[in-house]
Design a protein that fits this description.
single chain; alpha/beta; 10 strands; 45% helix; globular; binds acetoacetyl-coenzyme A
């Protein structure tokens, strides 16, 4: 399928979406977000895909929502179009999604990376929520997800004073999984995604759901939720296969059933 704003491909069991608006620093306009979410939803529904990667280019993962597209919007227009809802749609994808980030991940771009499950960053990556410079605040999760990652004091500096985080700072705060040289960021993301994509599909989905529940539930509710998902996995063929393979010292063959 041809797209106007993104490139898609698959490598083995990994589905890849690359933003393709290099002249606009991959600014996230409606068309790009629509194409991205449609592609991710299609990968999510495809049994041949086990994990996804979202990436940009060397200079920019994405420099935020498209300011030119938003500049004259009214509140009613913002409310009426599905734009901000695309970030919610991303967080509801059931398979793992990895962001491979080089260069700027700003505003909605930073929010998009944070809505993914893991981030592989290049040494050139810069994360920030510079919306304050536009007279607005983040609207796609930045104040919440960034604060959960880095804590209140630094989050305030990021939101109130437009401070950027370097890749190493992001690593120190646990915002990203690893930092690698720019030229290998995609290779590293692909290696991680391929390893994950080879694992038991239903267990993967439920593991993702259980980790994400930490942001929504009290500890007791989260523990009970985890326990139910754990018990549920004992109804899958993959559980029988995984344990039989361990006991008989062979490699498990996952069916996703
Ligand atoms: N929207 C639209 N166009 C953008 C853009 C954006 N977010 N970011 C960059 N561009 C465009 C520029 O307008 C420029 O286009 P022209 O060549 O047509 O003038 C082109 O990309 C290259 O940008 P620069 O010349 O500015 O490149 P630079 O290297 O000097 O600076 C930058 C790079 C620091 C990323 C700078 O472009 C910048 O600050 N961009 C805006 C970042 C920002 O404010 N993001 C938040 C957006 S609001 C948001 O995301 C809300 C939300 O929560 C959902």
């Amino acid at each position: 399928m041809t797209h106007q704003y993104i490139l898609t491909r698959s490598e083995g069991r990994v589905g890849i979406v690359q933003f393709n608006r290099p002249k606009a620093m991959n600014a996230l306009n409606r068309g790009l977000m629509q194409e991205t979410m449609d592609a991710l939803d299609a990968f999510d529904a495809d049994d041949a895909i086990g994990c996804m990667i979202v990436t940009g280019n060397e200079r920019a993962f994405a420099a935020g929502a498209d300011i030119k597209e938003m500049a004259t919007a009214t509140p009613a227009e913002m409310l009426d179009n599905p734009f901000i809802g695309y970030w919610d749609r991303l967080s509801k994808i059931s398979k793992p999604v990895i962001a491979a980030v080089s260069g700027y991940a700003l505003g909605g771009g930073c929010e998009l990376a944070m809505a993914c499950d893991m981030i592989v960053a290049s040494e050139t990556a810069q994360f920030g929520q510079p919306e304050i410079n536009l007279g607005i605040i983040p609207g796609a999760g930045g104040t919440q997800r960034m604060t959960l990652a880095v804590g209140k004091a630094l989050a305030m500096e990021i939101m109130l004073n437009g401070r950027f985080l370097s890749a190493d700072e992001a690593l120190n705060y646990g915002l990203v999984n690893r930092v690698v040289p720019a030229e290998v960021v995609m290779d590293e993301a692909l290696k991680l995604a391929s390893e994950i994509a080879a694992r038991a599909p239903i267990a993967l989905r439920l593991a993702k759901e259980a980790v994400n529940a930490v942001y929504e539930m009290s500890l007791q509710s989260g523990l009970a939720h985890e326990r139910r998902l754990f018990y549920m996995l004992f109804s899958t063929e993959d559980q029988s296969e995984g344990m039989d393979a361990f006991i008989n010292k062979r490699k498990a063959v996952w069916q996703g059933k």
